[in-house]
Amino acid sequence: LRPDGWLGKDSGPRYVQLRRRLEEAINTGLLQPNSSLPPEREIADLTDLSRVTVRKAIQELVKKGVVVQRQGSGSFVREAEPKVEQSLSHLTSFTADMKRRGLDTTSKWLERGIFLPSPEEVVALGLASDASVARIYRLREAGGRPMALEKAALPLDILPNPLDVTTSLYALLEQHGNRPVRAVQKISAVNLEKPECDLLGVPEGTAGLSIQRTSYLESGRVAEFTQSLYRGDAYDFVAELRLSS
Ligand code: 16G
Asked: Would residue 146 count as lying in a domain?
């Protein structure tokens, strides 16, 4: 919130510009979780904006759940929720992993059916050019908190009817003797786009982890190709490393 030229080349109404700056300060840790926001008057003086504009920007952040107001003591940056530590040493499913932590899982269905595969799915699953795929795209929640967006594609003989998946995909595959036993996972850093941020309930600009998992059956056949976006503010991935001999 530098006093000189803080608006830069930003466009849009001034309260939106200020809201973005405050969000940036929160996302980059300049304003720490649980810390108080400077008083409205101070922000107004610093930015040369009216108190009405400042109040409007703060109200927007309250609406987004990024800032909380406490009667008589001002506005505070929302407390960070604890991160989930996910081991990279075991092949687990979202449902099983969250259950182990005592958390209930729910899914919002974004897509579930038989589709023409994307070029990436064709390559990853080794499909014939005229084959279709079973695809399930879900917003995955644990303990009522949105955690990740997952788009899984499977060959039709492994998952003939995607509507059969109501809770755990891996539990269903196991029932049919198709439980993956090995997976290769690629993790990359991404900036989450606005529609994804809205689905995941995080402020625009939140960092995410893009994860691609290709999992294999005992026979060596590819069972699943899943592209996911995990909330960077909700996950830590942990791997155990040993000295190679
Ligand atoms: C995990 C897997 C995903 C798999 C899903 C099955 C990662 C990054 N991804 O979320 O590939 O499809 O579990 O979960 O770990 P389910 O059995 O609960 O449907």
From this structure: yes
β-pairing, 235-238 vs 84-87, is parallel
Closest CA to 49 of 104, 93, 10: 10
Q: Which CATH number covers residue 65?
A: 1.10.10.10
Q: Roughly what angle, to the nearest 10 degrees, separates helices 14-27 and 51-63?
A: 50
Give the Å distance between the CA of 94 and the centre of ligand 1.
5
ipTM of the modeled complex:
0.98
In whole angstroms, give the CA distance from residue 211 to residue 188: 7
Query: Rounded to the nearest whole angstrom, what is the distance from the C-alpha of residue 4 to the centroid of ligand 1?
Result: 48
Which tokens in the block code for residue 199? 């689905």
Residue 87 CA to ligand 1 center (angstroms) comes to: 13
Nearest CA to ligand 1 atom 4: 93
pLDDT in tens, 24-48: 888 788 899 889 999 999 999 999 9
Residue 230 has φ and ψ, to the nearest 5°, of: -100, 145
Q: Do 121 and 41 belong to one domain? A: no
Q: Is residue 205 exposed (0-12), middle (13-18) or buried (19+ Cβ within 10 Å)?
A: middle
